[in-house]
Specification:
By secondary structure, the protein is of the alpha+beta class. One of its GO terms (molecular function) is nucleotidyltransferase activity.
């Protein structure tokens, strides 16, 4: 292949290497020079242009890319028409991407001009998803290099293994203290995991965390035609002789592997009973967040056997994102119990909906609203109370005279609620495990409700956010574990942290409440009048 500058007349048949702009002339990169282009170049006063010409024995970039893409595509893979030296490959059906790493490496080793990139091996993909691309770097390559890359592909370097398992049985073992809602949530999360594969829970059983009871349940599900059985233990598997592996062995099954170098997901167990895979799920499988369980589950649903060598090879890249409900997080925290919860009262707002007066200073039963809220926080089990002020800070602080509270002024209060949340969280003592965030305009919040939120906070059970709830509606205040302080510090504008509650739903403990105290905030004169009448 020849590359270099040439006069317009000598460039005929060549392909432009760069986009050229001169006056009104625009000649794009990749344009083949012909008589019309020569005339336009001469008219624009261009004396020289850089072009590339294929020589005998060369093939164009598109021809090379197309040939290699066709060679690497196996079952379930479609190849898009090559353009500008690139040929993209797509999944023709849903399934798991199977990649032959050795063949990919051989193709990329042929020559620097030839590149082949794929998604991660064993990634679940949907129909139409782009899974790989062949890109030829120059405008052409020697045909012998193209042929070497095609030979390296060996008749397919990647394929889609379609999902074949559709009927999944689930067994949940029970111990005192395991709430029914945990089981319900686990089933919901599992159903959502299975749905992309076209699989569903065909039956579920709940039995005591006992070897005999579990063995009977697994055997029953197999008899009902389950193609895969997942066991969620009330207690994590600690040993190959523990309840779950013992139950599998007890019905004539085999334990193929216990443990995997993926975190979260370490305590996964893979077994087999009568040719049907049986999974002992790690605790993180109750969370919808990706973990090691997903890596194995999706392969099994696609009919792919997960070997011991494949499991032990998952260590590189196996450190995944933190599961917030983990009892012992990697991040070093000072404490994490329900014994030291600070209270933060947000009292910096401008009361714009009140039409002038500061609602926090409005009285109910002879006391300013903000003082009512603060006194209830002080009467609760909260370890200390911080009040965030801003608008009319001196008047608000005067209304709280004599109370044992810490004041923090928010200079950015006009930017909205988020600025006050951040000011309050920043002021929480370092030895606090969490903070209950109260709104200064909610006078019906009681010390008892705050105490109930604190009692519901149980990190060892995954309860890291406590929220009052009535008829499915979530109210205030909300208690947050220190684990979420960094995320709370990213809030912006006049929007609260509701989206974080939804994001970390697996960490939420709902505290049932009666009445409307957890939902009544005094925002308008009408609301104040109603509260005064009540």
């Amino acid at each position: 292949m020849k590359f270099g500058p040439a006069s317009p007349a000598d460039a005929v048949g060549g392909v432009t290497v760069h986009t050229l702009r001169q006056g009104s002339l625009v000649l794009k990169k990749g344009t083949t020079i012909g008589p019309a282009e020569v005339e336009a170049l001469d008219k624009a006063g261009v004396a020289e242009i850089v072009v590339v010409r294929l020589e005998q024995g060369d093939v164009s970039e598109d021809t090379a890319a197309a040939s290699i893409a066709q060679a690497v595509a196996g079952d379930g893979v479609n190849v898009e028409r090559a353009f500008t030296g690139r040929a993209n490959l797509f999944a023709a059906k849903a399934g798991v991407l199977v990649v032959d790493r050795a063949r990919v490496d051989r193709i990329n080793s042929v020559d620097e001009a030839i590149t082949f990139a794929t998604l991660a091996a064993f990634k679940p993909v949907v129909e139409g998803e782009m899974i790989a691309t062949v890109k030829i770097i120059p405008f052409g390559v020697e045909a012998k290099l193209r042929d070497a890359a095609v030979a390296a592909a060996g008749g397919g370097a990647l394929r889609i293994s379609p999902y074949v398992i559709k009927r999944v049985g689930v067994v949940s073992t029970l111990l005192p203290g395991l709430a029914p809602k945990v089981i319900e949530k686990t089933l919901r999360v599992t159903a959502e995991r299975l749905a992309p594969a076209g699989a569903a829970i065909m039956a579920e059983r709940r039995v005591p965390h006992d070897e005999a009871a579990l063995a009977a349940a697994i055997k029953e599900l197999l008899g009902l035609g389950a193609e895969l059985v997942i066991v969620f233990g009330a207690s994590a598997i600690a040993d190959r002789r523990d309840v779950i592996p013992a139950a599998i062995s007890g019905i004539g099954g085999a334990i193929e592997h216990f443990g995997m170098p993926v975190d979260p997901g370490n305590l996964l167990l893979i077994g087999n009973a009568g040719g049907v895979p049986v999974l002992g799920a790690p605790g993180c499988a109750r969370s919808p967040v990706e973990n090691g369980f997903d890596w194995v589950l999706m392969r099994l649903l696609a009919g792919l056997k997960v070997t011991r060598a494949e499991l032990t090879g998952m260590g590189v890249g196996g450190l995944l994102m933190e599961i917030v409900t983990r009892p012992q997080p990697r991040e070093s925290l000072v404490t994490d119990s329900n014994r030291n919860i600070a209270a933060v009262i947000l009292a910096a707002g401008r009361s714009t909906r009140m039409g002038g007066p500061n609602k926090l200073l409005a009285e109910l039963g002879g006391k300013p609203l903000v003082r009512i809220v603060t006194e209830q926080a002080l009467a609760s089990k909260a370890s200390g109370v911080t009040v965030v002020t801003g608008h009319q800070a001196e008047q608000v602080e005067k209304a709280l005279a004599g109370l044992k509270v810490k004041f923090v002024r928010n200079p950015d209060f006009a930017e909205g609620l988020a600025s006050s949340v951040k000011a309050g969280i920043a002021a929480v003592p370092q030895n606090a495990d969490g903070a209950v965030i109260c709104l200064g305009d909610m006078p019906l919040i009681s010390a008892d409700l705050i105490d109930r939120l604190i009692e519901a906070f149980a990190p060892d059970r995954g309860n890291l956010i406590a929220v009052p709830v009535s008829d499915g509606r979530r109210g205030n205040p909300v208690l947050w574990s220190r684990r979420f302080f960094n995320e709370l510090m990213t809030l912006d504008g006049d929007i609260g942290a509701r989206h974080l509650i939804a994001k970390h739903s697996e960490a939420v403990a709902e505290v049932p409440v009666e009445g409307h105290g957890a939902f009544l905030d005094i925002d308008t004169p009408q609301a104040l009048e109603e509260a005064q009448r009540g």
